[in-house]
Structure to design on (259 residues):
Protein backbone atom coordinates (compact mmCIF):
# COMPACT_ATOMS: atom_id res chain seq x y z
CA UNK A 1 0.00 0.00 0.00
CA UNK A 2 1.09 3.56 -0.56
CA UNK A 3 1.95 5.98 2.17
CA UNK A 4 -0.32 9.02 2.00
CA UNK A 5 1.26 12.18 0.68
CA UNK A 6 2.61 14.47 3.40
CA UNK A 7 0.27 17.23 4.50
CA UNK A 8 1.65 20.39 3.02
CA UNK A 9 0.49 23.28 0.90
CA UNK A 10 -2.70 25.31 1.05
CA UNK A 11 -6.25 24.59 -0.06
CA UNK A 12 -6.50 22.88 -3.42
CA UNK A 13 -9.27 22.03 -5.80
CA UNK A 14 -9.99 18.37 -6.37
CA UNK A 15 -9.55 17.91 -10.11
CA UNK A 16 -12.92 17.74 -11.87
CA UNK A 17 -14.89 18.73 -8.78
CA UNK A 18 -16.80 22.01 -9.16
CA UNK A 19 -17.95 22.59 -5.60
CA UNK A 20 -17.20 21.08 -2.20
CA UNK A 21 -19.88 21.37 0.46
CA UNK A 22 -19.19 20.17 4.01
CA UNK A 23 -22.03 18.80 6.13
CA UNK A 24 -21.25 19.38 9.78
CA UNK A 25 -22.80 19.07 13.21
CA UNK A 26 -21.79 20.05 16.71
CA UNK A 27 -22.53 16.65 18.19
CA UNK A 28 -23.25 13.13 17.03
CA UNK A 29 -26.62 11.54 16.47
CA UNK A 30 -28.39 14.65 15.17
CA UNK A 31 -28.84 13.18 11.67
CA UNK A 32 -25.90 14.65 9.78
CA UNK A 33 -25.29 11.41 7.87
CA UNK A 34 -28.99 10.92 7.17
CA UNK A 35 -29.16 14.42 5.72
CA UNK A 36 -25.98 13.87 3.67
CA UNK A 37 -27.21 10.59 2.18
CA UNK A 38 -30.67 11.91 1.30
CA UNK A 39 -29.33 15.19 -0.04
CA UNK A 40 -26.85 13.32 -2.25
CA UNK A 41 -29.61 11.08 -3.64
CA UNK A 42 -31.92 14.07 -4.17
CA UNK A 43 -29.21 15.93 -6.08
CA UNK A 44 -28.52 12.84 -8.19
CA UNK A 45 -32.24 12.45 -8.92
CA UNK A 46 -32.18 16.00 -10.27
CA UNK A 47 -29.49 14.97 -12.71
CA UNK A 48 -26.58 16.57 -10.89
CA UNK A 49 -23.25 14.79 -10.80
CA UNK A 50 -22.79 14.28 -7.10
CA UNK A 51 -20.18 12.68 -4.90
CA UNK A 52 -20.30 11.88 -1.20
CA UNK A 53 -17.13 11.61 0.83
CA UNK A 54 -17.84 9.99 4.19
CA UNK A 55 -15.19 11.53 6.41
CA UNK A 56 -16.92 10.60 9.65
CA UNK A 57 -13.87 8.70 10.78
CA UNK A 58 -15.30 7.72 14.17
CA UNK A 59 -18.58 6.34 12.89
CA UNK A 60 -18.74 6.07 9.11
CA UNK A 61 -22.36 5.28 8.28
CA UNK A 62 -22.60 5.98 4.55
CA UNK A 63 -21.83 2.42 3.41
CA UNK A 64 -24.87 1.21 5.39
CA UNK A 65 -27.10 4.14 4.46
CA UNK A 66 -26.28 3.96 0.76
CA UNK A 67 -26.27 0.17 0.65
CA UNK A 68 -22.64 -0.09 -0.42
CA UNK A 69 -20.19 -2.75 0.72
CA UNK A 70 -16.93 -4.31 -0.33
CA UNK A 71 -13.51 -2.88 -0.71
CA UNK A 72 -12.94 -0.20 -3.37
CA UNK A 73 -10.70 -1.38 -6.19
CA UNK A 74 -7.33 0.09 -6.96
CA UNK A 75 -6.35 -1.33 -10.37
CA UNK A 76 -3.12 0.67 -10.61
CA UNK A 77 -2.23 0.43 -6.93
CA UNK A 78 -2.10 4.22 -6.74
CA UNK A 79 -5.56 5.59 -7.25
CA UNK A 80 -8.79 4.27 -5.77
CA UNK A 81 -12.03 3.75 -7.68
CA UNK A 82 -15.01 5.16 -5.80
CA UNK A 83 -18.20 3.17 -5.29
CA UNK A 84 -21.51 4.14 -6.83
CA UNK A 85 -25.16 3.66 -5.88
CA UNK A 86 -28.39 5.58 -6.54
CA UNK A 87 -26.44 7.82 -8.92
CA UNK A 88 -24.10 8.92 -6.13
CA UNK A 89 -20.34 8.45 -6.40
CA UNK A 90 -19.15 7.65 -2.92
CA UNK A 91 -16.16 6.79 -0.83
CA UNK A 92 -16.08 6.12 2.89
CA UNK A 93 -13.39 5.61 5.44
CA UNK A 94 -15.61 2.70 6.51
CA UNK A 95 -14.74 0.89 3.29
CA UNK A 96 -11.05 1.18 4.05
CA UNK A 97 -11.31 -0.42 7.47
CA UNK A 98 -12.87 -3.71 8.52
CA UNK A 99 -16.49 -3.44 9.51
CA UNK A 100 -17.05 -3.51 13.22
CA UNK A 101 -13.47 -2.55 13.87
CA UNK A 102 -13.01 0.56 15.98
CA UNK A 103 -11.01 3.30 14.35
CA UNK A 104 -8.23 3.85 16.84
CA UNK A 105 -5.80 5.60 14.53
CA UNK A 106 -3.80 8.48 15.76
CA UNK A 107 -4.46 11.95 14.40
CA UNK A 108 -1.80 11.93 11.64
CA UNK A 109 -3.11 8.62 10.26
CA UNK A 110 -6.64 9.94 10.17
CA UNK A 111 -5.46 13.02 8.35
CA UNK A 112 -3.55 10.82 5.91
CA UNK A 113 -6.68 8.80 5.21
CA UNK A 114 -8.72 11.94 4.63
CA UNK A 115 -6.04 13.31 2.32
CA UNK A 116 -6.04 10.00 0.46
CA UNK A 117 -9.80 10.08 -0.02
CA UNK A 118 -9.54 13.58 -1.44
CA UNK A 119 -6.53 13.18 -3.69
CA UNK A 120 -6.27 9.50 -4.64
CA UNK A 121 -9.91 8.66 -5.23
CA UNK A 122 -10.91 9.04 -8.87
CA UNK A 123 -13.92 11.23 -8.24
CA UNK A 124 -14.36 12.03 -11.91
CA UNK A 125 -16.32 15.08 -13.05
CA UNK A 126 -18.66 16.22 -10.28
CA UNK A 127 -20.93 19.24 -9.94
CA UNK A 128 -20.78 18.89 -6.19
CA UNK A 129 -18.92 16.80 -3.64
CA UNK A 130 -20.62 16.55 -0.24
CA UNK A 131 -18.36 15.80 2.70
CA UNK A 132 -20.01 14.11 5.67
CA UNK A 133 -17.81 15.32 8.53
CA UNK A 134 -17.39 13.78 11.97
CA UNK A 135 -19.27 15.66 14.69
CA UNK A 136 -17.55 18.49 16.51
CA UNK A 137 -14.58 20.66 15.74
CA UNK A 138 -11.55 18.42 15.42
CA UNK A 139 -8.61 17.59 13.21
CA UNK A 140 -10.69 16.33 10.29
CA UNK A 141 -12.61 19.60 9.97
CA UNK A 142 -9.40 21.63 10.18
CA UNK A 143 -7.59 19.44 7.68
CA UNK A 144 -10.45 19.59 5.21
CA UNK A 145 -10.64 23.38 5.37
CA UNK A 146 -6.88 23.73 5.11
CA UNK A 147 -6.31 21.23 2.32
CA UNK A 148 -9.39 21.54 0.14
CA UNK A 149 -11.20 24.55 -1.24
CA UNK A 150 -14.44 24.15 0.65
CA UNK A 151 -17.13 26.35 -0.90
CA UNK A 152 -19.38 26.27 2.10
CA UNK A 153 -20.66 24.35 5.09
CA UNK A 154 -24.12 23.28 6.17
CA UNK A 155 -24.63 22.71 9.88
CA UNK A 156 -27.22 20.17 10.99
CA UNK A 157 -28.73 20.47 14.45
CA UNK A 158 -31.76 19.31 16.41
CA UNK A 159 -33.90 21.95 18.11
CA UNK A 160 -32.52 20.95 21.50
CA UNK A 161 -30.46 23.56 23.30
CA UNK A 162 -27.49 21.31 23.89
CA UNK A 163 -27.20 20.39 20.23
CA UNK A 164 -27.55 24.05 19.37
CA UNK A 165 -24.76 25.07 21.70
CA UNK A 166 -22.47 22.54 20.08
CA UNK A 167 -23.52 23.70 16.64
CA UNK A 168 -22.48 27.24 17.57
CA UNK A 169 -18.92 26.02 18.17
CA UNK A 170 -18.93 24.47 14.71
CA UNK A 171 -20.16 27.71 13.17
CA UNK A 172 -17.41 29.59 15.01
CA UNK A 173 -14.80 27.20 13.66
CA UNK A 174 -15.92 27.62 10.05
CA UNK A 175 -15.96 31.39 10.50
CA UNK A 176 -12.39 31.29 11.76
CA UNK A 177 -11.34 29.16 8.82
CA UNK A 178 -13.12 31.51 6.40
CA UNK A 179 -15.47 28.79 5.17
CA UNK A 180 -18.86 30.39 4.45
CA UNK A 181 -21.89 28.88 6.19
CA UNK A 182 -24.52 28.17 3.53
CA UNK A 183 -27.14 27.66 6.19
CA UNK A 184 -28.50 25.56 9.01
CA UNK A 185 -30.78 22.54 8.92
CA UNK A 186 -33.14 21.65 11.72
CA UNK A 187 -33.47 17.88 11.87
CA UNK A 188 -35.93 15.98 14.04
CA UNK A 189 -37.85 19.21 13.86
CA UNK A 190 -41.25 17.79 14.66
CA UNK A 191 -42.24 14.22 15.25
CA UNK A 192 -44.83 12.99 12.79
CA UNK A 193 -46.61 9.85 14.00
CA UNK A 194 -46.44 7.23 11.26
CA UNK A 195 -49.78 5.89 12.47
CA UNK A 196 -52.04 8.93 12.72
CA UNK A 197 -49.94 11.78 11.35
CA UNK A 198 -50.13 13.69 14.63
CA UNK A 199 -47.29 16.22 15.00
CA UNK A 200 -45.41 16.82 18.22
CA UNK A 201 -42.31 18.90 19.04
CA UNK A 202 -40.34 16.30 20.95
CA UNK A 203 -37.06 18.23 20.94
CA UNK A 204 -38.59 21.69 21.14
CA UNK A 205 -39.24 23.98 18.24
CA UNK A 206 -37.85 27.05 16.52
CA UNK A 207 -34.40 26.99 18.13
CA UNK A 208 -32.49 26.46 14.92
CA UNK A 209 -34.54 29.05 13.04
CA UNK A 210 -33.75 31.72 15.63
CA UNK A 211 -30.07 30.75 15.66
CA UNK A 212 -29.98 31.04 11.85
CA UNK A 213 -31.62 34.47 12.05
CA UNK A 214 -29.15 35.55 14.73
CA UNK A 215 -26.09 34.70 12.66
CA UNK A 216 -27.69 35.86 9.43
CA UNK A 217 -27.75 32.60 7.46
CA UNK A 218 -30.74 30.82 5.95
CA UNK A 219 -32.58 27.96 7.60
CA UNK A 220 -32.27 25.57 4.67
CA UNK A 221 -34.69 22.88 5.81
CA UNK A 222 -36.78 21.62 8.69
CA UNK A 223 -36.81 17.85 8.52
CA UNK A 224 -39.36 15.96 10.59
CA UNK A 225 -38.56 13.06 12.87
CA UNK A 226 -40.30 10.23 11.07
CA UNK A 227 -39.99 6.47 11.45
CA UNK A 228 -39.77 5.97 7.68
CA UNK A 229 -36.61 8.08 7.48
CA UNK A 230 -34.84 5.88 10.01
CA UNK A 231 -36.10 2.62 8.53
CA UNK A 232 -35.05 3.66 5.03
CA UNK A 233 -31.54 4.61 6.16
CA UNK A 234 -31.09 1.37 8.07
CA UNK A 235 -32.29 -0.58 5.04
CA UNK A 236 -29.61 0.83 2.76
CA UNK A 237 -31.86 2.97 0.55
CA UNK A 238 -32.49 6.53 1.76
CA UNK A 239 -36.12 7.66 1.81
CA UNK A 240 -35.54 9.89 -1.21
CA UNK A 241 -34.92 6.67 -3.18
CA UNK A 242 -37.13 4.15 -1.37
CA UNK A 243 -40.23 6.36 -0.87
CA UNK A 244 -39.78 9.16 -3.39
CA UNK A 245 -43.45 10.18 -3.23
CA UNK A 246 -43.51 10.70 0.54
CA UNK A 247 -43.63 14.22 1.98
CA UNK A 248 -40.39 13.38 3.84
CA UNK A 249 -38.58 12.74 0.56
CA UNK A 250 -39.97 16.02 -0.75
CA UNK A 251 -38.29 17.88 2.14
CA UNK A 252 -34.91 16.64 0.92
CA UNK A 253 -35.67 17.45 -2.72
CA UNK A 254 -36.61 21.00 -1.72
CA UNK A 255 -33.30 21.22 0.11
CA UNK A 256 -31.40 19.96 -2.96
CA UNK A 257 -32.98 22.70 -5.07
CA UNK A 258 -31.64 25.35 -2.73
CA UNK A 259 -28.02 24.33 -3.32
P1 LIG B 1 -25.21 11.63 12.80
O1 LIG B 1 -24.64 11.45 11.44
O2 LIG B 1 -25.46 13.08 13.13
O3 LIG B 1 -24.47 10.92 13.89
P2 LIG B 1 -27.32 9.86 11.87
O4 LIG B 1 -27.66 10.44 10.54
O5 LIG B 1 -26.48 8.63 11.92
O6 LIG B 1 -26.69 10.99 12.82
O7 LIG B 1 -28.71 9.64 12.64
C1 LIG B 1 -28.76 9.01 13.91
C2 LIG B 1 -29.96 8.08 13.94
O8 LIG B 1 -31.16 8.83 13.84
C3 LIG B 1 -30.00 7.09 12.77
O9 LIG B 1 -30.51 5.88 13.21
C4 LIG B 1 -30.95 7.75 11.79
O10 LIG B 1 -31.60 6.79 10.97
C5 LIG B 1 -31.90 8.44 12.71
N1 LIG B 1 -32.47 9.67 12.12
C6 LIG B 1 -31.81 10.76 11.69
N2 LIG B 1 -32.65 11.70 11.25
C7 LIG B 1 -33.90 11.20 11.37
C8 LIG B 1 -35.22 11.69 11.09
N3 LIG B 1 -35.39 12.90 10.58
N4 LIG B 1 -36.26 10.86 11.34
C9 LIG B 1 -36.06 9.62 11.87
N5 LIG B 1 -34.87 9.12 12.17
C10 LIG B 1 -33.78 9.89 11.93
Amino acid sequence: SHAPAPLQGGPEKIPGVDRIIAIASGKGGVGKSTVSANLACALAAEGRRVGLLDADVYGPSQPRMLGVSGRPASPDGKTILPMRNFGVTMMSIGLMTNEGQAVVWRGPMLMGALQQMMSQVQWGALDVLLVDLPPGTGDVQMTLAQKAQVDGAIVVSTPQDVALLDARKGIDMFNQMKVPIFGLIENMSTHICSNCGHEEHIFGHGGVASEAAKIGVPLLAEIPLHLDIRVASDGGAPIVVSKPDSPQAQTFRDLARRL
In short: The longest helix spans residues 161-176.
